[in-house]
Design a protein that fits this description.
By secondary structure, this protein is mainly β. It is 0% helix and 65% strand. It is built from no helices and 19 strands. It has a 17-stranded parallel beta sheet that branches. A two-stranded antiparallel sheet has the order 14-15. Strand 14 and strand 15 form a beta hairpin.
C-alpha cells in the first residue's frame, strides 16, 4: 500500500505504533509541507517485506517517534531530502539478522534529530543485525544526542553533510567512511 501526505495542512496523526510494510510492500511519502506524527515505527517488519518513508521538501516532517526501526526484519528505507525533517527518541537501521536498512539524508535543512542513540547493523539488546547504512549527503544533517553504534555490517558514509553525536562506537566491526563533510563528536572509540 501507498500513502501520500501532500501539502501544507495535510496531516496524519497515528497515536499508536506505525508499521510500514508488514507482510508485503508499504510506502509513505510526506511532501510539500505535509506532516506525519506517530509513536514507535517499524519499516519492513517481517522477512521478505519492504517498507519505505520519504520525507521531502521544506516544512515536511515526521515527528513524535518513540523508536524508529529502518529495516526491522525486511528491507527498510528512510529518505530525508530537500529540507524534510524527521525526529525520534532513538533509531535503529537494520535491526534483525538478514534485514537491510538504509537511511539517507541530503539537501539543505534536511535533518534526522535523535534524542537518544542510533544503532546501525544491530542493536544493543539483541546484538548483530543485518546490513545497515547511514548515508549523509551534501548539506544533510544527522544529530544524535547520545551515541552512534556500528555493528559488523553497519556503515556510516559521511559524504558532504554533518554528523553530530556524543560518541561513535563500534561493536566488533562496522565501517565509518568519512569522505567529506563535518563530524562533531566528543569520543570516537571501538572494540
Amino acid at each position: 500500500g501507498t500513502v501520500v501526505i501532500n501539502g501544507i495542512g495535510s496531516r496524519w496523526t497515528n497515536h499508536s505504533q506505525l508499521e510500514v510494510g508488514d507482510r508485503g510492500s508499504g510506502a509513505i511519502t510526506v511532501e510539500n509541507g505535509g506532516s506525519l506524527m506517530a509513536g514507535a515505527a517499524w519499516l519492513a517488519t517481517v522477512p521478505g517485506s519492504s517498507g519505505s518513508v520519504d520525507v521531502r521538501g521544506a516544512g515536511s516532517e515526521w515527528s513524535g517517534n518513540e523508536r524508529l526501526y529502518v529495516g526491522y526484519r525486511g528491507n527498510g528505507t528512510l529518505t530525508i531530502e530537500d529540507g524534510g525533517k524527521v525526529s525520534s527518541e532513538s533509531g535503529t537501521v537494520a535491526f534483525g539478522p538478514m534485514s537491510v536498512g538504509t537511511a539517507t539524508v541530503s539537501g539543505a535543512n534536511s535533518s534526522w534529530d535523535i534524542s537518544g542513540s542510533l544503532e546501525i547493523g544491530g542493536s544493543s539488546i539483541f546484538g548483530e543485525g543485518g546490513a545497515g547504512t547511514l548515508q549523509i549527503d551534501p548539506l544533510g544533517a544527522v544529530n544524535v544526542a547520545d551515541e552512534v553504534v556500528l555493528f559488523p555490517d553497519g556503515l556510516v558514509h559521511l559524504n558532504g553533510g554533518t554528523l553530530t553525536a556524543d560518541a561513535i562506537g563500534f561493536e566488533y566491526g562496522g565501517v565509518f567512511d568519512w569522505s567529506t563533510g563535518r563530524l562533531h563528536v566528543d569520543a570516537f572509540a571501538g572494540d
